[in-house]
Amino acid sequence: MIALVRIALRRPYTFVVLALIILIVGPLAALRTPVDIFPDIRIPVVAVIWQYTGLPPDQMAGRMTTQFQRALTTTVNDIEHIEANSYNTLSITKVFFQPNVDIRIANTQITAIAQTLLKQMPPGATPPLILNYNASTVPIIQLALSGQGLSEQALADLGSNVIRTPLVTVPGAAIPLPYGGKQRQVLIDLDSLAMQARGLSGQDVANALAAQNLITPVGTQKIGGFEYSIQLNNAPAALEALGDLPIKSVNGAMVYIHDIGHVRDGNSPQINIVHVDGNRSVLMQVLKNGSVSTLSIIAGIKQQVEELKAILPSALNIAQIGDQSVFVKGAVGGVIYEGTIAAALTSLMILLFLGSWRSTLIIAISIPLSVLGSIATLAALGETLNIMTLGGLALAVGILVDDATVTIENINWHLEQGKEVETAIMDGAAQIVTPAFVSLLCICVVFVPMFFLEGVARFLFVPMAEAVMSAMACSFVLSRTLVPTMANYLLRKHAPHTDLHGHDGALPPSRNPLVRFQRGFEAGFERVRLGYRELLTMALARRAVFVLGFTAFVLGSFALTPYLGRDFFPSVDAGQILMHARSQVGTRVEENANHFAEIQKAIRQVVPPGELGTLVDNIGMPVSGINMTYNSTGTIGTQDGDIQIKLNEDHHPTADYVRTLREKLPGLFPGTTFSFLPADIISQILNFGAPAPIDLQIRGPNLAADFDYAQELLRKLRHVPGLVDARIQQSLSSPGFNVDVDRTRAQYVGVTERDVTNSMVVNLAGSSQVAPTYWLSPDNGQSYPIVMQTPQYQMDSLTALKNLPITAAGAPSQTLGAIADVSRVARSAVVSQYNIQAMIQIYATTQGRDLGAGLGRRAEGRGRNGK
Questions:
Q1: Are 248 and 204 in contact, with CB atoms under 8 Å apart?
Q2: What secondary structure does DSSP assign to 212-232, as a single string?
Q3: Per-residue pLDDT for 425 more than 50?
Q4: Of 272, 553, 729, 854, which has the fewest CB atoms closer than 10 Å, so is most exposed?
Q5: How far apart are CA 94 and CA 137, in angstroms?
Q6: What is the 3-state secondary structure (H, E, C) of 4-59?
Q7: DSSP type of residue 414
Q8: Which residue(s) pair with 788 in the sheet?
Q9: Weakest mean pLDDT among 482-496, 608-622, 623-637
């Protein structure tokens, strides 16, 4: 090591150039390195989304999700565990893999087995959507679309087909389909009475549409010197033409679609409603996907929105809400600010103790260079600038000063002995190089255990360890090279036993206030040092008493451990509240929207108007399984909804409002379950897609027994002090009807179960799943599904259900009630599985106490039911 000092003195320009390189590369790396709130949490997860319109959760789980999971365990390697949730119409399977798995191979294997299983799925099933999932995939900004004179259908159409496509080109942005609005479709509203009068069923209409609306090119023809493309009118270009399609001849008269239904430009039944400050709106979420900087993504989204305004309707208003870049800038800027203050105070202390601006300048230069060298190293390792890496650098500032300070102080001591500057540098470096190297190793060893952590903790704390260790290594190298080089040029030789200024004995008075202050500080510190020396002498004289007293003090300090809170990360007041509410299971979305309007009125009575910024609700199920995959609020049906509350600056503590709302809302709205979810980006990332930090899982083969045990456990948990928002995620009380067809009776009238199924599917679920057809809009070039369905407002009673016409080839038309019995049932609203085993979850969080205390008495589900 001492040879490095000798080289630095002989070739000073080499290390000056090295310092200049660090000064150039460091800032460039800082500018190019992504800035984010947390390091990239690279836990390999793949989400698989199966969809089948109208299939209830228990059937979805049994016929699609479960057999897919079993196939995964046979053909896909390195699976850590599998989580699956089956809802009405769709299911989401999340496959968690072992660390360091090649996610590309995992994607390939999952895609292959999904394609293989298609023939085993229900008829008409389509291949699943496959997404790479990440803990950092959280909403970072939301765009609320509204406009005078623009309908919900127009807003949803603009969001899906015009705005969304350019936005997904922003690197690192993941944008699911819009929330709210109405999804445009070409609807054929079937008239049950008209069909019944003509002896037709919905299946007859579906067959006619499939035969009369074909999307098949017929080719070209060469005549003379030209080749002509031939366009057949096999797909009607105008909506009115769809109504003129013939179905069949009945009693010698041709029946057309317009005779038994109404063709219109409409929308699918709405299952998702969004309000922004009380007005119907469409909400587009922008999620962070990958390691691209959050700040870069949001800046790119804002730029794209400005460019899109030139082609969007002038009446369209795009409001940007929930901008997380403000929070990220504040968090990262706060760490940088505190680190800068620490470096400035450190330099000031050096100036006070050494009393030499030359020595202070050397140290003040070495600290920033060490930090810049660490940033360059972090960039080379693929890390980002976040609160963990910057926090590590801020932590290291106080340690970094030791290397340079000890080096300069020791050089000055040798100068006071009358040595030449270069000799003093070599002698001083020789004395401290080994202790400094051992100190470097000891500090770095402290951070080594972080590399053996697993899960989220590893991805959080390893970058911090890398930041500290790289900064320490840079500081050690600079203290052996650049610091001696600068000392050789800046420090001056002085006579033996004189101070740094060459003075011996008492110093003459000075009018310089800084000099006078430094001399007064030295005099005061000398008195403190003499006092400490006396105390140390007393301790050495009474060793036994001091050792016993000090040991008792240390052991007594451990008694305070139970009073210290245990949290994974400190709580943050970001001025945001995210509340989830669940009405009675099965509540239709229109009724739930009215219910949420009353809840918002109660919220406005708690939060003063001057502090309430934006109020956004998102009610019901999103239209796409992609949205559900990214959803982290626990929505399972149309009875669920989220309310986002953004507070203005200078607001009262957010926790106080949350506490007040927790106390008042359940009393004002009995039967509604309220829970307050993580609203800030930090908590959302740390929860890894879960709606609460506490997730208790009861798993076993008997779902009913699992649910009974969960209810018993929930009653006990609600008595735990500080534990709030405890609720069961799943529900077994979703209302439904069972239609039991008497097959013998049906066979007597020439009707089979297939005939009943086909007729009911077209009338209730619509024809989109079993017989999908499309219409190409000449206005915007978009294809929209053609769906035949009995309007929901006509199917508003059991009588209407029983009067559904059922037809079969060669048999007279029947009604459903004539061949089937209808009964009420309660079924699962969602079927959850963990490694294929049925699972019931209890979510909870804490209030007024730390998370560790809330989990102090862990509930273990062992014993009956094999849980």
A1: yes
A2: H-------EEEETTEEEE---
A3: yes
A4: 553
A5: 14
A6: HHHHHHHCHHHHHHHHHHHHHHHHHHHHHCCECCCCCCCCCEEEEEEECCCCCHHH
A7: H
A8: 188
A9: 482-496
User: Beta-strand (E) ranges in 469-575?
Assistant: none
**Can you read off the two tokens belonging to residue 544?**
């036994």
Q: Which pair of structure tokens corresponds to residue 513?
A: 């206030």
Distance between CA atoms of residues 449 and 462, nearest Å: 9
Question: What does the block give as tokens for 770?
Answer: 């079993």
Contacts of 772 (CB under 8 A, 6+ apart): 785
- Provide the CB-side half-sphere exposure for 148 (13 A, CA): 2
Query: From CA 441, how far away is CA 439, in angstroms rounded?
Result: 5
- Judged by DSSP in three states, 750 sits in coil
pTM: 0.83
pLDDT at 399 over 80: no
DSSP code, position 132? E
**Element (DSSP H or E) covering residue 845:** strand 837-846
Specify the residue for token string 């360890």: 465
Helix or strand holding residue 279 (H, E): strand 279-288
Return the number of other C-beta atoms located less than 10 Å from residue 327's C-beta: 20
Say what the pLDDT of residue 237 is.
85
Spatial distance between the Cα atoms of 126 and 769, rounded to a whole number of angstroms: 9
- Lookup: tokens for 223: 């005549």
Are the C-beta atoms of 576 and 649 separated by less than 8 Å? no
At 823 the three-state DSSP class reads: strand
**675 Cβ neighbours under 8 A, 6+ residues apart:** 579, 580, 581, 634, 691, 692, 725, 727, 843, 845
Four-point Cα dihedral 109, 113, 116, 122, nearest 10: -150
What gap in Å lies between CA 736 and CA 828, rounded to an integer? Answer: 10
Instruction: Report d(CA 844, CA 692) in Å as an integer.
Output: 6
Q: What local confidence, expressed as pLDDT, does residue 345 receive?
A: 78
What's the one-letter identity of residue 350? I
The SS3 call for residue 101 is: coil
Mean pLDDT of the chain: 86
CB of 703 closer than 8 Å to CB of 865: no
Q: Is 808 helix (H, G, I), strand (E, B) or coil?
A: strand
Amino acid making up residue 367: I
What does the DSSP assignment read for 63-116? IIIHHHHHHHHHH--SEEEEEEEE-SSEEEEEEEE-TT--HHHHHHHHHHHHHH
H or E segment to which residue 541 belongs = helix 513-541
Give the tokens for residue 357. 């601006």
Q: Name the token pair of 243.
A: 């109504």
Q: How far is the C-alpha of 18 from the C-alpha of 485, rounded, in Å?
A: 12
- Burial tier of 207 (Cβ tally within 10 Å: 0-12, 13-18, 19+): middle
Q: Encode pLDDT of 665-689 as tens digits.
A: 999 999 999 999 988 777 888 787 7
**Residue 858 structure tokens:** 């862990």
Quick one: tokens of 621?
Answer: 């199920």
d(CA 643, CA 645): 6
Report the Cα 178 to chain-centroid distance in Å: 17
Average confidence (pLDDT) over 130-156: 86
Ranges of beta strands (E only) in 671-804 are 673-677, 694-699, 723-728, 734-741, 773-776, 783-789
